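User:
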Amino acid sequence: MSAIDLVVLGLIKQQPQGAYDIQKELAYRNISSCIKVSIPSIYKKVIQLEEKGYIESDITKTGKMPEKAVYSLTDKGEEYFLYLMKKISAQTVNIFLDLNSVIMNLDLVSIETKEQCLSQIKDNIIALKEQIVENITLKSHIPQTGKGILSQQLALTETLELWADEFSKEEG
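Assistant: Predicted structure:
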């Protein structure tokens, strides 16, 4: 879960904010498409980080709105953030695709089921590629790092699309 810790700490490092604001930012950036993070689990994650002393909350109230905890990084949190940056960037890059569990079992199903599964995989790759292209087009104001992630995701989907075409030909 340290990748999620790093994402949350990074958002708080950019700007002190509440858990709801973090959820909105993650949803806006579509982070769950490239990092396994459950948007609803952010509240739990923020509480865990606060209990460990990595962030601290300041209760604020604006007008008639209910009180809200706004989180900021502690010195310990700053150290943990840097530790995670170095640790995660030094890890072996792994690409886990759930679709590989289908690919490894294609020989165990009928030809019709095999073709249907391969067709669905390709359709989903194309849909993901279209979504990424749309995000690149609509979110032109995002920072360069965000554009870098979208560019990476686009390159991966384009490669998967080529792979799906070749694999379908070999299987057909």
